[in-house]
Structures are given as structure tokens and as C-alpha cells.
Request: fold
Amino acid sequence: MCTPRPLTASELEAEGGQVLEIDKENIVQYAHYGYVYCMLLTKGLNSGRSDDETLISGGGDGTIKLWSLDKDSGGSIKKAVTLENGDDSILAIVLDGKLLYSGRLEGDINVWDLDTHQMIRRIRAHTADVLTLAVSRGLLFSGSANGFAKVCINRDVVFRASSNNLPSNLTRGMNALLDGKLMISLFLPPLSLIMTTKKSM
Reply:
């Protein structure tokens, strides 16, 4: 067996693609006092108009921020609401209608009502950091840093899978409802779990 030679600088450069530049007015310095771990974009959340966009971000400062996007001024962003979660970082967020689920350090999942901007529930789902979330058909799917994936209904865990419970095996990602089929993919190296349910004809 031989050791592969290192790549040259020209071999490391990507080919094709497009350079994107962001205007200064669209950059928000210190949007969070810590890393921005997660974001999602949604429409029709605040005003009820289906074409109004809102950016939701979760940060290392323990806050979730809702930003309104002004399409009349080229999509510039303006902070609308801050949701306080305490000091634990927000590592994952997922939206189900007007309910926002946030995955936190040390295993908690907070549930927020975005109509009232109030936290309505806290779920103690894991004993390690919640890294990924998905919702589908009334089920909440979550994956944590210690290799566990769980399915919750309300506050009750109804299904659990693990990758030998090794701390190095992180639950990498999760996908939910696609094209009317429940297709949940949980990536737990070396285990991959896929749950599928087809729509009844």
C-alpha cells in the first residue's frame, strides 16, 4: 500500500461556480453573540401575507431571532422578534405551522408558539446536544450528539435508535415528509435507519 501524493494548489481549486457578493446593507454584524448554528426561511409567518418572508436564526447565545425580509428594498433584513431560551446554544430549529421547535445543548427541545412568541413546552428528549430536528404528521424526530435518534409525540418518546451509543457517532442529519410520503432518514454512522410510509391509495 502506498501513500497518495499531496494535491497541488491548482488541483485543490474548484472549477466553475459563481462568486457571490453580499451588499453591506444585507450584512448584520453581531446578529447573535456567538455562532449562528441554524437558520430557516419561511413565508407568511408574521403578517399573514403568503409572500412575506421571515428568516429564523438560532445562535450560540441561546436566542432565536426572527428577521423580516423587505423585498421592496432588495431583501434587506430587519430584526423583528427575539425569543430567549436561556444560555444554552440553539443547535437546530424546525417549523411546523406556527410551532417552532428548537434543539439545545444538553438535550432539551423547546417548543415556541410564533403567534404569541411564548415558549409553550420543554421536552427533555436527550442527554446530549440536540443536533438535528424534523417534523412530519404530528411526529417530532430528533438526533443527538451521542448517537441517539428519537421520535416524540407531544412529550413522550415513542421510538429510539442508537449507533452503539458511542460519543463519536453523531446523528448527522434528518429528512422528513417528501411528496406525500413519510420518508424519515436518520444518519447514525455506521447505522442508517430509513422509515417509509406510502400514502394509502
Summary: The longest strand covers residues 76-84. Helices lie at 9-12. The CA atoms of residues 60 and 89 lie 4 Å apart. The mean pLDDT is 75.
